[in-house]
Each structure stands twice: as C-alpha cells, then as structure tokens.
C-alpha cells in the first residue's frame, strides 16, 4: 500500500484542536505526521464534506501541513456505499449509529478497493476493532504497526529510567516520527519541509519498501491459514537486529492475529545494522534516546 486514507472527521478534529491551541497534543495530528512520512500519499475523500476544513487550511499558514493531503475522488463509491448500507442495516444497525458504523464501513471498503490503508480514529476505530474488521479486510498489519514496536521500546526505556531516578520524571510522547519532525521544525509551517526532507532519505525509502512487501502479501486471502515465507523472512530480519549502543532492549513482537504463534524477541539497534531496511527505525530510536 502506497497510500493512506483518513476521514474528514479526523481532519476536522485536527483543526478544532488547533483552534483550541493544543494542536501538538492531538493524537490525530501526531499520527497524521507519521503517515505523511510513512506513505507516499495521505488521502482524504473529496465527497462534499471537506469544503469547511479546506477553507480553513487555505486561510491559515499554520495549517500548511494539511495541504500535503491528496484528494481522492468518489469514483466507484456508489457500489461501496450500497454495500456499506446493506451491511449496516443487516448486521450493525441495532448497536451502532449510522454516522459511525456506516461511515467506517464506507471508508474501509473504499480503502480495500483502492489498496489503501484506512486510518480511523475515535468511535469509528472502536467500531472496526470491536467487530474485527481489520482482520476481515486484511488491514491488520501495516507500517504504522511496525513503527509502534519502536515507539513502545522508547516508552519502556524512559519508564525504566524514571523508576531508577525518582526526580527525573521525564515526560514522554512515544511517537518517534512526530517527535523527530517536531524537534526539527521551529514552527508548524516548517514541519512541511522536515517531512519532505525525511521522505527523500534513502533509509526511509528502504524501510517503506520492506514493509510494503509484507503488506502486499498480507492483503491476499491465501495467507490466513498458512503464513508465507515473506512474512517469516521479515520476522527473521527483525530478529537479526543487534549491537545496541546504550543497552539491549527487547520486546515481544507478533505479526498480527493470524500469526499469533509467530512471536519473536526484537532488539532495536543503534550502532550497526545487518539490514539497510532497518536503518530508519534505528535512527528514530537513537534520536529519541539522545534527544532526552
């Protein structure tokens, strides 16, 4: 998957948080920044519900980063809407509001049709999780999940440090990509340039290409019962990471619900890497540790 998709609700929440002066604390905004780095394009559905926020973005230099989003036309949406409406009425109507469940189904089905990763938040994300729709749509493992392994390690590093040094009490936002972008931009406007420069780096391209290979295989129906070699190969590459500069930090990694039996210990590296596709997560970890 070379593209990610966020809904207009998410973008509206980002702008509302900006209006309240807490944009940097918005989970949606942090994940959007990560997505802009990890995918070639981050899209929104140009379905008539984006005029308000588009106008806000056009008239605010501080929201310039939202201009990096790509509109996705509604071509082929009638069939998707009909399917979402039918499924909602037959399965979910009694337990969920239409604006939540039917909206989530429309975005999810459209994402699957176009080989795009859908990134929902709030009630729509809860609906998808509660009904195991990520697994059913083969979107249960993406590059964002790979980075989350790294983010957990950064969090654990400072959690352990805080327990040893009571007066430290480091405040930590364990979103490594967002922290890097924010730390290298003096304003919200400059985030655009930092993101653009990061996307050009060879280490980022190598990492994206590596995860995309796994995403491509996961999207096929045949893997549910028999995990293919490419999945095991990717996990083996994670196992090969070693030579920490500060200390060995390990975590349990699982490649998603269908592969719960394939669990490995992962060590995030600093000094030396065996695989070029893992230089980027090592770089992010090194930046997070040194930054503090």
Description of the molecule:
The chain has 292 residues and is α/β, with parallel strands linked by helices. It is 54% helix and 8% strand. The chain has helices at 8-19, 27-38, 51-58, 77-92, 98-113, 122-130, 133-136, 143-164, 176-183, 191-200, 202-218, 229-240, 279-291; strands at 3-5, 41-45, 70-72, 117-118, 250-254, 263-267. The strands form 2 sheets. Strands 3-2-1-4 form a 4-stranded parallel sheet. Strands 5-6 form a two-stranded antiparallel ribbon. A hairpin with an 8-residue loop joins strand 5 (250-254) and strand 6. Helix 4 packs across helix 5 (98-113), helix 5 crosses helix 6 and helix 8 runs parallel beside helix 13. The chain is globular, with a radius of gyration of 20 Å. The chain starts with a strand and ends with a helix.
Biggest sheet: strand arrangement? 3-2-1-4
Number of helices: 13
**Helix coverage percent:** 40-55%
Quaternary state of this entry equals single chain
Structural class, please?
A: alpha/beta
Give Rg in angstroms: 20 Å
N/C terminus separation:
34 Å
Strand content: 5-15%
């Amino acid at each position: 998957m070379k593209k990610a998709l966020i809904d207009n609700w998410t973008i509206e929440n980002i702008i509302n948080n900006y209006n309240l002066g807490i944009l940097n604390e918005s989970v949606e905004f942090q994940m959007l920044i990560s997505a802009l780095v990890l995918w070639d394009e981050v899209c929104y559905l140009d379905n008539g519900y984006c005029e308000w926020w588009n106008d806000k973005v056009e008239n605010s230099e501080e929201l310039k980063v939202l201009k990096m989003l790509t509109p996705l036309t509604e071509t082929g949406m009638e069939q998707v809407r009909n399917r979402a409406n039918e499924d909602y009425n037959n399965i979910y109507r009694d337990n969920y509001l239409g604006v939540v469940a039917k909206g989530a189904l429309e975005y999810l089905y459209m994402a699957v049709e176009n080989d795009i990763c859908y990134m929902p938040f709030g009630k729509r994300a809860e609906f998808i999780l509660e009904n195991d729709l990520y697994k059913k749509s083969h979107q249960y493992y993406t590059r964002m999940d790979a980075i989350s392994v790294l983010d957990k390690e950064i969090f654990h590093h400072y959690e352990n440090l805080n327990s040893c040094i009571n007066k430290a009490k480091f405040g930590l936002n364990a979103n490594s990509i967002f922290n890097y972008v924010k730390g290298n931009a003096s304003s919200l406007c400059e985030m655009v340039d930092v993101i653009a420069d990061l996307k050009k780096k060879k280490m980022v391209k190598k990492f994206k290409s590596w995860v995309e290979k796994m995403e491509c295989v996961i999207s096929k129906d045949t893997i549910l019962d028999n995990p293919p070699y490419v999945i095991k190969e990717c996990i083996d590459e994670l196992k090969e990471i070693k030579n920490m500069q500060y200390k060995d930090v390990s975590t349990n990694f699982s490649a998603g619900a269908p592969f719960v039996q394939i669990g490995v210990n992962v060590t995030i590296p600093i000094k030396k890497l065996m695989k070029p596709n893992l230089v980027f997560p090592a770089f992010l970890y090194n930046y997070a540790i040194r930054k503090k």
